[in-house]
Structures are given as structure tokens and as C-alpha cells.
Specification:
This protein is an all-alpha fold. Helix content is about 75%, strand content about 0%. The N and C termini lie far apart (about 70 Å).
Length: about 625
């Protein structure tokens, strides 16, 4: 019955997953069988596995022959679920399954190499493209199944023989990379669904190979595997494998810069390779990484200039910065790493200087806007990657005072353009974020105060403009307000500024930032504020910080403003509607606790603020719910 079901899986794709789950659980339960009764799984499982693999292969072939432009594995999420369930079946009686897969893989590779020897096979070069597409579709499916089988190494008992079989299968996949390199498009716009699917299959294989043989948890000796790989394709250790993976990743970022999914999965692989301690140390030594750390602009990596990949720029530079700082000499090379950004920022400074003298042309504005949004996303990625004190201080010293003041000038020009203000504000939110206690300047350094002043200038410049001129929509106003709330909350709770200094020396940076952000938050009706999760999650942490660390400022506000803040906190306490977030009620309760604590534990220096609080309570009966129970 199982064999017949898989033979007809093309017409019942939704049931395949459940069939695979059933057989997978039967296989995993073998270890718990007791007694000497005979199990028929040894004969049935290889039949079921081979039928499933062959059926998917035939489905891919038939689809491509009937509809050459289609992708038979378009739904990768469903495919991955099936492969995760099928992999334990493949590792059971592994010798038979591996031999079967090799018997399918070799003819497909041989066909492609025959096409290659017959003439030019690059995209757009003519030739038997329809026949090539069919074989590529079959090969993509085989690469997927090999990736799943190799990745399931840790779920079953492993042996030298199994590692040798892994090596044989992986050899075929690494050989397929040569074909992909020959087929890469000669022009950025060229495309072929089967080649794109084969590229995605290779990334899937790399991910599972990394988990099985490279990741931090893959501490099992793998001599037999690398011996097979060394004999066949010259890959002798994990360093060489990582070199192949990273080279393929960088090549994807160049060749497939307009393919969103390929760029995304390539960057995910690159990021995860750099996440482990030992693997990131290995990456530092690779020639391709050394080159990328010196030359990493749009000229070398075209995906950076594609408007469809704005978030990918941040991910790429976060990963690249972590790799740089993992090296013992990373901080020494930091200036060299940041050098490609300097011409862009200097060009922007020249633009703003000219804009003060005369109105820039539309073309100059558009060019400057594209450069600004790109470099802000890049620098945010660098800032995310600075995870310790030494790295952050090096980044801040590079940024200030040469380039950071330019942010305010950018807001003055493009305050009503969310495509500029969103990455700009997000960069500032990351810059003031004291995660892992990374913002810790020397005791004699004024950098903490200088950083807050720049944040305050930015908030005041942006806030006053959108208060008066932005329509009350999420894209035009509310999203910017939510990021402003995050900026000020992070700056106030960072612990790197002594805020008492501002009032002592008559500096208005703190009061200006508090005033404008409070006005922004209160300009949004509470029902609309609660309707947008990002705005809601920005407002209530800010309210808690305000009640905890700046209670005097809160009490000295106008009665109407004070009452509105308390009303919003009361609304947050009772919030149970979707999108429900337990942190909202928790932060509201914490804010009230700090306010009540101030009322009953204040000292002489707080007499004026305490008197103002008593006045608010008397004038606004709505505030009584806070104090009457006490």
C-alpha cells in the first residue's frame, strides 16, 4: 500500500507528507522494539524510499517536458517538510538508498557534461535549452534529497561506512557546481527556472552539510568523508568546504543580484557560517573573505544597488563585521574596512553644503537620496555587528564628529519621505542601543553626552516637522513615531549618560527630546496607537522609563498632558484585545508602581514635583484610581 501511494503522489501531494511521517515514525521506533519477532521494515522501507524518490523525479521530468517554463518544486516549504520526514527513511538501510541515489545522480551529471562538451551552454547562448532544463530539474531534486540525507547524519547511528557513502553522494553535488558555473547567466537579467531551482537546491545542501559536518555541534570525526571528497574533488577538510560555500555565496550575490530568494538564502547561509565561534575563525583565513573585507561596495557586489534588496544590505554588513572583529587584528584593520564608505559620505556632505547655497536639481536629489538610504542600511549592519565595547568605541570614533551630524541635515531635507527617514531613524535606534553593555566610554570621555545630544537633535528636528506636516497614517507618521519612541527609550535606559548634568548646566537636550517624543506619542489617539503593534510596543516601554527615571519631569507637566498619560497607562492595564501582548499590561503596571513609589517615598528635594502630583490628582478625578486603593 505504501509503495502504491507514493507511486501516485503526483495526484495527491497533500497526503505525501503524512505518509512519510507514518513511515518515519515506524523507522524511529525500531530502536525500542523488544523480543525476537521478525520485522519486515528491512525489506519494506528501502522499497518505499526508492519509490518516493523515483516518483518525485518522474513528476519533475513530466512537468518540465509538458511545461518547460515551470518550476516543478516551486513550493519549497512543502518540499522541505517532506524531505525532513523522508531523511530518516533514507538513513535506514543506508547502503541500498545511497546506491540507488548514485544510480540516478551519475546519468544526470553525465548528460549535462555531454551537453557542455558539445558547445556553449550558458543562458541565452542557444543550444538544447529544453533538454537541459529537464535534466537540471531532475538534478535539483536529487541535490535536495542528498542534502536531507546528509543532514540527517545525527539522527541515526553513524559509522565509517556511512561517512564514505555521505562522501560519495556529496562528491556528486560538488561536481554539479561546475555545471552551474558554466550555466550562469552572461547578463544580469537572464533567467531560467530550473537553473534557479538548482541554485536553491545547492544552498539547501550547504545548510544541511554545515549542520552535519561543520557546525559547532558537529564534533564527530569525519575522516572517511573528507578522504572520499579529497580523492574525487580535491576537498580535504572543512576549511576547503567552507571556501567552496563562501565562494558560491559571493558568486550568487553577483550573478543573481535580482533574484530575491537566492540572495536571501545566500545571505542566511553566510550569516550562519559566521555565527559559530570556530567556523567564524576559519572564515577569517579565507582569501575570498579577506578580499570582501577590503572591497565590499556595489561595484563588487551588485546586489547592494538593487532596490529590491534593502534589508539584505544590513544583514550582509552585520555578518561581515562579525567576521572582521572575530580576528585578533580586526580592530587594527577597522579603518581599512570602513574606507569604502568614506567617499560616499564625503559626496553626501558636499551635496548638503551645495544644497544650503542653492536648491539642488531633481537628479542630484535622487542620487543623494539613493546613496544616503543605502549607506545608512550598511552602517546599521556594521553597528549591529559591533557587539563589544572596543568595537563600538572604534565605530563611534570613526563616525563622530565627521559624519554623524549629517543625519540632522538629511532630516531637514527629507523629513516627509519615509524611504529616507525609516532607515535613518533605525540606524540611530541601533547606535544608541546599549546591548551587551557595549557603550562604555572612558570616565573622562564626553562621548556618552555627545551621542545623546545628536540623538536629541535628530528627534527634535524630525518630530517638530511631522507634528505639523505629516498626515495621520502609519507610513507617513506612526511608523516614524514608533522608532522615535524606541530611540529615546534606549537612550534613557542605556546607562551611559548622567542626565542630571543637563539641568545642572542648562543644557536643553534632555527636555527637548522628552518634549517632542511625548508630543508625538500623545498626538496619536489611543485606539489607533493600540491598533499598530510596533507603535504600541514602543509607547509603553517609554511610559515605564518616564515614570521610573524621570518622574519629576512627568509630574511637572501640564494637567491635561499628565492625565492623558495616566489614561493611556490605565488603558494598557486593561488591554486584552488582539494583538494582545502581555508586555503591555506588565509595563503599564510597572509604570504605575514607580509613580506610586515616588508619591510615598519622595524626599525634600522632590517637594515641588510632589506638590504638582497632588495637584494633578485633585484636578483630575480619573487619576484617583492610582492612589485611592492605597
Amino acid at each position: 500500500m505504501g509503495v502504491q501511494s507514493f507511486e501516485s503522489c503526483a495526484s495527491a501531494t497533500n497526503s505525501v507528507y503524512y505518509l512519510l511521517q507514518l513511515w518515519s515514525r515506524l523507522v524511529t521506533s525500531v530502536a525500542y522494539l523488544k523480543g525476537e519477532g521478525e520485522s519486515h521494515l528491512d525489506s519494506y522501507v528501502p522499497q518505499v524510499t526508492q519509490t518516493y524518490i523515483l516518483s518525485k523525479l518522474q513528476t519533475a521530468r513530466a512537468t518540465l517536458q509538458a511545461h518547460p517554463g515551470e518550476d516543478p518544486m516551486e513550493n519549497e516549504e512543502q518540499l522541505v517538510d517532506q524531505l525532513d520526514s523522508a531523511s530518516p527513511l533514507c538513513r535506514y538501510q543506508y547502503e541500498q538508498t545511497a546506491k540507488f541515489l548514485l544510480g540516478l545522480f551519475d546519468p544526470a551529471l553525465n548528460k549535462l557534461m555531454a551537453f557542455a562538451s558539445a558547445g556553449n551552454v550558458a543562458l541565452g547562448a542557444g543550444g538544447p535549452q529544453a533538454e537541459i532544463a529537464v535534466v537540471e530539474g531532475e538534478l535539483a531534486w536529487l541535490v535536495y534529497i542528498v542534502g536531507a540525507v546528509v543532514g540527517a547524519r545525527g539522527t541515526s547511528r553513524t559509522s565509517d561506512e556511512h561517512e564514505e557513502l555521505d562522501g560519495d553522494l556529496c562528491t556528486r553535488v560538488f561536481q554539479a557546481i561546475k555545471w552551474v558555473e558554466m550555466r550562469q547567466p552572461t547578463q544580469p537579467g537572464a533567467s531560467a527556472p530550473t537553473l534557479e531551482r538548482l541554485e536553491l537546491a545547492l544552498l539547501y545542501f550547504f545548510q544541511y552539510f554545515r549542520k552535519a559536518y561543520i557546525g559547532e555541534q558537529a564534533n564527530i570525526s569525519s575522516t572517511s568523508l573528507y578522504q572520499r571528497l579529497s580523492e574525487s574533488v580535491g576537498i580535504s577538510d572543512n576549511v576547503t568546504v567552507m571556501s567552496v560555500m563562501v565562494n558560491k555565496t559571493m558568486q550568487n550575490l553577483k550573478v543573481w543580484c535580482r533574484h530575491e530568494e537566492l540572495v536571501d538564502k545566500s545571505l542566511v547561509l553566510f550569516h550562519e557560517l559566521a555565527s559559530g565561534y570556530s567556523s567564524s575563525k576559519t572564515l577569517c583565513k579565507l582569501e575570498v573573505i579577506t578580499l570582501a573585507l577590503r572591497h565590499h561596495g556595489p561595484a563588487q557586489l551588485p546586489f547592494l544597488s538593487q532596490s529590491g534588496n534593502p534589508r539584505h544590505r544590513t544583514t550582509f554588513y552585520t555578518t561581515l563585521t562579525r567576521i572582521l572583529l572575530m580576528d585578533d587584528n580586526g580592530l587594527l584593520d577597522f579603518e581599512l574596512f570602513m574606507a569604502p564608505f568614506v567617499p560616499v559620505l564625503q559626496h553626501l556632505q558636499a551635496f548638503f553644503t551645495q544644497a544650503e547655497a542653492a536648491a539642488p536639481t531633481a537628479a542630484a536629489r535622487d542620487e543623494a537620496k539613493a546613496l544616503l538610504t543605502g549607506v545608512l542600511r550598511d552602517l546599521r549592519g556594521v553597528c549591529v555587528g559591533t557587539a563589544n565595547r572596543r568595537a563600538y568605541v572604534a565605530f563611534f570614533d570613526w563616525l563622530y564628529p565627521d559624519f554623524l551630524p549629517m543625519l540632522v541635515r538629511s532630516v531637514e531635507l527629507w523629513w516627509n519621505d519615509s524611504s529616507v527617514t525609516t532607515p535613518l531613524l533605525k540606524f540611530m535606534a541601533e547606535l544608541v542601543h546599549n546591548k551587551c553593555q557595549r557603550i562604555a566610554f572612558d570616565s573622562s570621555s564626553p562621548n556618552g553626552i555627545l551621542l545623546f545630544r545628536e540623538a536629541s537633535r535628530l528627534l527634535a528636528t524630525y518630530g517638530h516637522r511631522i507634528l505639523n506636516g505629516a498626515p495621520p497614517t502609519y507610513a507617513d507618521k506612526y511608523k516614524g513615531v514608533s522608532i522615535c519612541l524606541t530611540i529615546l527609550s534606549r537612550a534613557l535606559s542605556g546607562g551611559y549618560v548622567n542626565f542630571g548634568v543637563f539641568s545642572l548646566y542648562g543644557d536643553t537636550a534632555l527636555s527637548a527630546a522628552l518634549d517632542v517624543v511625548l508630543q508625538l506619542s500623545l498626538s496619536i489617539p489611543i485606539q489607533e496607537l493600540m491598533a499598530y503593534p510596533k507603535v504600541m510596543r514602543g509607547y509603553f516601554p517609554f511610559s515605564e522609563i518616564l515614570c521610573h527615571n524621570h518622574t519629576t519631569y512627568l509630574c511637572m507637566l501640564e494637567p491635561a498632558i499628565f492625565f492623558q498619560i495616566i489614561s493611556n497607562i490605565q488603558y494598557g492595564l486593561k488591554w486584552v484585545n488582539p494583538p494582545h501582548d502581555i508586555s503591555v499590561s506588565s509595563e503599564s503596571a510597572s509604570a504605575l508602581y514607580h509613580l506610586v513609589e515616588f508619591r510615598f517615598r519622595s524626599n525634600k528635594k522632590d517637594a515641588q514635583a510632589l506638590q504638582a502630583l497632588e495637584s494633578h490628582v485633585l484636578k483630575n478625578t480619573g487619576c484617583a484610581f492610582v492612589f485611592e486603593p492605597l
